[in-house]
Amino acid sequence: MDFGVGLMILGGFLLGGAWSIWRADHDTEGRTGPQVLFAVILLVAALLATASGILRLV
Description:
single chain; about 60 residues; mainly alpha; about 0% strand
């Protein structure tokens, strides 16, 4: 398996984790600050890993 493909797969997992955290909200309070922060961090990491994987394949 090429390293670029591995980075794209890692980006997909991170994107799924960000989506899972974003969907998990509290019944009465909604999303908490740490949930939003962690989801944004995972989203940025997913985008960076995917972009790096695409650039490695080119």
